[in-house]
Amino acid sequence: MHKGDDVCSVAELKPGEMKCVFVEGTRILLSNVDGKVYATSDVCSHALAYLSDGWLEGSVVECPLHGAQFDVVTGKALSAPANGDIETYGVTVADGRIFVASAQLTSAKG
Ligand code: FES
């Protein structure tokens, strides 16, 4: 079964860290929440800012530009001025590598 695109090693993403990777030209935010890896869009739903430049606390990422917050597990927008949720993507960890499925699990909704 195709696991998705090999984006980086598990060792590159420690608990509490996040990182931007590219899957088929799309910016993906990888977040390690207590040892589990999640993938979402790296682009804020408010304007053009990269969430990987922001801050991760638990499962909540804060946008560096105007402070909107998103849950990296569900992609849900948690605070203004977000304009809707962010996409989430499937993640598989195997043989010390992280794979991200290019198909979205959810779509951002207004
Ligand atoms: S661009 Fe992210 S809150 Fe405005």
UniProtKB/TrEMBL annotation:
Residues 5-100 form the Rieske domain. Keywords: 2Fe-2S, Iron, Iron-sulfur, Metal-binding. The keyword Amino-acid biosynthesis does not apply. InterPro entries: Rieske_2Fe-2S, Rieske_2Fe-2S_sf. Pfam families: Rieske (PF00355). One of its GO terms (molecular function) is 2 iron, 2 sulfur cluster binding. The keyword Cytoplasm does not apply. This is Rieske (2Fe-2S) region. It comes from Cupriavidus pinatubonensis (strain JMP 134 / LMG 1197) (Cupriavidus necator (strain JMP 134)).
